[in-house]
Amino acid sequence: MQSKIIIGAHMSVSGGLLGAAKTAVSIGADTFQFFTRNPQGGARRVYTDGELEQFNAFCAESGIQKPLGHAPYTLNACSAKENVLEFAQLVLREDTQFLAKIPGSLFNFHPGSHVGQGVEVGIELIAKSLNEAVDVNNTCTICLETMAGKGSEIGGKFSELAAIIDRAEALRDAGKIGVCLDTCHVFDGGYDILGDLDGVLREFDGTVGLGRLFAVHINDSKFGISSHKDRHANIGQGHLGLPFFRKLVRHPLLTHLPFYLETPQDSEQGYGEEIRAILADG
Ligand code: FE
Ligand code: FE
Ligand code: ZN
Questions:
Q1: What is the pLDDT of residue 61?
Q2: Which of 13, 4, 70, 40 is nearest to 268 (CA)?
């Protein structure tokens, strides 16, 4: 029997986490993603324990699972600048401790850009940031996002993500660190998920391990394979196409995972339509 597909979208938290969860329910989603902070800055909204209890109770009642907190884009865990690294560690620490209060939640961040220091130094710094900032006994599950490989981005190759996980030993051994696969990014990064999804999943399994795949971002891609541009398109309006996504969410190796839309929709209703199109039969 096919298990229920867990699908949702990125939601604004202008009405708080509870508001986002309610919007998710209203569009027929089972999960949602949100920014833990101002994505271009770093300021965060602080929730009282009472607010979090209310949010958790609402999720339990309405069937919302695995809310995913996305880190701000300003986080660079392998910067050459001391103050940028300090900010990255602060966010990693505070956000993973905050999310630990939400059952089943995930935290996702872009591994970072090495800006000229080289991939090896970048990987080492990201692992160090994680090891120093995160309390393995007080964290949600952490995801490194697969990247398009723009500029000096780390994480455009599965092997780079595997190397970070390998060096974040305590988190790795506790099963608290893995990967969020972004369909636009991996396609952009050169993995042919359209022509050979099974082959790409085999390659992922051989490097990171499918047991460490915790989430999937479902975005169509404005540009073709290996373009390294990172431009999301609405489902069916890019190079991947609707049939690809309908197949993806039903793939036997992936059906247990949460899927999050991050398409350039201008309304939450648009996400609802994408969800219905992906879940439609036939
Ligand atoms: Fe992202
Ligand atoms: Fe993404
Ligand atoms: Zn992207």
A1: 98
A2: 13
Q: pLDDT value at position 1? A: 45
Q: Spell out, as residue ranges, where the chain has pLDDT lower than 70.
A: 1-2, 282
Ligand 2 geometric centre to CA of 119 (Å) = 21
Handedness of CA 241, 243, 245, 247 (dihedral sign): negative
In this structure, which ligand is nearest to the CA of 108? 1
Number of domains into which the chain is organized: 1
Distance 31 CA to ligand 2 centre (A): 15
What separation in Å is there between the alpha carbon of 208 and the centre of ligand 3? 20
Distance CA 254, CA 227 (A): 25
pTM above 0.85, yes or no: yes
Asked whether residue 271 is assigned to any structural domain, the reply reads no
Domain annotation covers residue 3: no
Domain extent for 120: 68-256
Rounded distance from Cα 262 to ligand 2 centre (Å): 7
Residue 38 burial (CB count, 10 A):
13
Angle between helices 16-26 and 268-279 (to 10 degrees): 40
